[in-house]
Each structure stands twice: as structure tokens, then as C-alpha cells.
Amino acid sequence: MLWNNLQQTVELGWDFYLPVIVFVGLIAMAVPVWASIGSAAILMLIMSGDLPLSLVGESLFSGIDAFALTAVPLFILTGDVLVRTGLSRKFLNVAEALTCWAKGGFGSATVLVCGMFAAISGSDAAGAAAVGRMTIDRLVESGYPRPYACALVAAGACTGILIPPSIAYIIIGLVLGISASTLFLAALIPGLAILISILITNIVMNRIYAYEGGGLMTMGEWFTNLRRALASDWYAFIVPGIIFYGIFSGRLTPTEAGATAVVVTIIMGFILGTLKLSDFPAMLVSSAKVNGIILPIIAFSAPLAEALAIMGVPQGFVTAVTSLTDDPYVLILLMIGILIAAGCVMETTPNIVILAPILKPLADNIGMNEIQFCIMMITALGVGFITPPLGLNLFVVSGITGESILKIAARAVPFVFFMLMVVLLIAYVPAISTTLLPDIYK
After folding, report:
1. Looking at residue 216, what DSSP letter applies?
2. What are the distances in angstroms from CA 141 to CA 121, 202, 212, 225, 428?
3. Does the N-terminal peptide bond of residue 165 adopt cis geometry, omega within 30 degrees of 0?
4. 406-410 contacts: CB < 8 A, separation 24 or more?
5. The pLDDT value given to residue 422
6. Is the pTM of this model over 0.70?
């Protein structure tokens, strides 16, 4: 019914259908997403004749000609440097000292270190790979079944796009014309809420199945452990401290904070003796590969967005959906369902550049705050990353451990449930996203 309404609202012909078929077909054949989007966009422009092909080159350049995008490679590089210098293991040591007082302590430490890594790298796949290599074997030694340990890391790594600073918020800010710093501030409470929901899930599962043994510590023993960890590893928190203080105090833009973090991390690596000049080629190549995936997608999304806008697809989608129901609660559920399903099958960047311009008018139509919409969208996509059976993070941890994807997916269900509860709170309670913002954004 929705599709029929869309067809009646917008006169869709083969200039729309064929590019969509080509896009889906290329994705199914494992063609890179940027090439699939670019092919569909150019074919749509050729068939519709709405935009001269001579302007495509200009459109591609304008899509990535933004100072804010400079922050993306900088945060990715910071994450790579953290792993190579061993500073990420310092986070694990402190997280373990924080949570060792109770049963399930190392599982909770794993989730916390995912959050710490997320606050620096801004990437969920990088967090899943880096933290998974450090913790999964130890989780198994602590008594966790390997599929559950993999699911725990996959869930914790979802915070990579949810806890600011996040690459996803930089991109959606660019697509919708919203300040990344504002989105970072708005995402702080929702990101922490997702992290807490994962911690609670792990605690509940430990209560039920008694995965992790060990007795409770006294307050004195816990304080002694924490003091020792901080005394030996405190300097690892200089980097996230710079990023958080610089961005949230307004003294640094996200790009400046990313550049400062890279320089400081490199200097610390040299001082500690864990980073050598010979490490730089592999480190830079690794970061460049990730950037080589993200930036072409953003570039080719510009002509696609222009073609869809000229054809009236976003506006037609709003009219078609609201003709079925004008109940904002139902429409929000519909958006969440679309986003989680999209998060299952595609990475964050293509989902943002394709869906944000289409769903944003629907959010505006029901009176949803644009900041709240952005937070809801990114959080729902994050849940999609571990939603069985196609979540991206499930495949990442399966790849580094060799564990069956279906076994990991089955263990991920409780995490999806608790995270979905947070998504619904974000969608229906605007204050969760806007409490920290100035009145002008509320």
C-alpha cells in the first residue's frame, strides 16, 4: 500500500526503477558501495535528464569540499595510533580495575573499553576489531562461552558511532547542514545510555547463567586496585581528555581536536618507545583504506541526492506515508524499523547519505526536533549493526575469531532488546537528546 501511494504521489518511471534495480544488483554482487551509488546516480541523471552530466564532476567535488570532513581521517588515524602504541590496552587495564569489584567484572570492563575506544576513534568496526583481539580470549578464559563473548564485543563496539566524537555525526551533520559540535553535545547522554544498557544486559546475563566466577571485593581492595591502575596508566587518558575538553568547551572544532589528538598520541608513542618511524607506512595505509571507503560514498551521494530531490522522492515519500497514518508514534516506529533494517545490510555512511534526506522531511512533518532526529537515526543504525543475522559487527567479530555468525547472532538478541528500549526512549522523549543543548536548539 505504501508503495502504491508513493507511485501515485510521484510519477515514478523507469528513470527511477532501473537505477534502483542496478544499485541493488551491484550491492548483491559485492561491488563497492561507492561504485554502486555512483552508477545508480549517473544512470538516474541520464535517464531523467534532470541534471546535465557536465555538472556531475562539480557535484562530486562539492560533496566532499567541507572542512568538517577533515576530522574523519584524523579520528581514524588516532584510533590506529592508539592500537599500535599499546595505549588501548591501558584503557582495558583501567576499565578492569573499575569493574573488578563484582561478578561479571571483566565483561563489564570489555564494554567500558569499547566505549573508551569509541570516544577516540569514532568507528564501530575498528572498535570491534581492536577490542575483540584484546578481550575475547580472556573472556572465554573467564568463563564466557565464545559466541557470547563475541556478541558482547560486537554490542560494545556499536558505541563507536554513538558516543561522541563520532564519524557518523560528522557525516549526518554535513548532509543535513547541522553543526557536528552540536550533535556531539546532544549525543552524549544517548551514547552513555546505550553503553549502560549493554552493561546492564551483561550483568543480567551473568546473574542468570553465572558466566564469570569470582567473589565480591571489599571497598578497600577495589580502591587499591583502581589506584594502582590509574597510577601506572593514567597518561592514556590524556588523548580522550584533549578531545572531550577541546570539543565540549568550544575551544577546538572537531577537526582541530582530531589533529591535536593525532599529534599527542604520536608523541606519546615515541616517548613510551612503542612507536617507531617504520610503523608509519602501515599505519597510514590502514587509515587510508578506511577513508577510501567513506569519502567516495559521500562524494557520489551528492548527485544521487540531487536527482532524488528533483524527482520529488523525499516529498513524495512523506505524502505517501502520511496518507496511511498521521499518528506520529506510528510514523516514528516506521522510521526506526527502516533504519534498523538498513543498518543490518549496509554501513553507516551510505545509510546516512541515502536515508537522511528522505526521512528528515517526514520527521519535520510530525514536528520532531532535527537534533533529536539525527540522534535517533544514528542510534537506530547502531542497533542494526548487531541485529541478527546480518549485523555488520557480527561479521567483524566472526571474521577475527572464526566463530559461527549464527551462534554469535543468537547470543546478540538480549543486547538488541535492551538497546532497542533506549532507541524508543530517544525517539519519544526529546529531552534525552536536547537537555545539554542551548535553548535555541530545543
Report:
1. P
2. 28, 16, 9, 21, 41
3. yes
4. 407/147, 408/147, 408/150, 408/151, 408/154, 409/151, 410/147
5. 94
6. yes
DSSP states along 313-327? HHHHHHHHHHHH---
Write down the mean pLDDT value for the chain.
Answer: 82
* Residue 139 banded pLDDT, cuts 50, 70, 90: confident
The cell for 85 is 602504541
How many angstroms from the chain centroid is the CA of residue 177? 19
pLDDT tier at 31, thresholds 50, 70, 90 = confident
pLDDT of residue 333: 92
Q: Work out the number of other CB atoms within 10 angstroms of the CB of residue 14.
A: 10
DSSP letter (8 states) at residue 30 = T
Confidence band, pLDDT 50/70/90 cuts, at residue 101: low
Q: For residue 92, what are the CA distances in angstroms to 114, 186, 230, 244?
A: 9, 27, 11, 19
d(CA 422, CA 379): 9
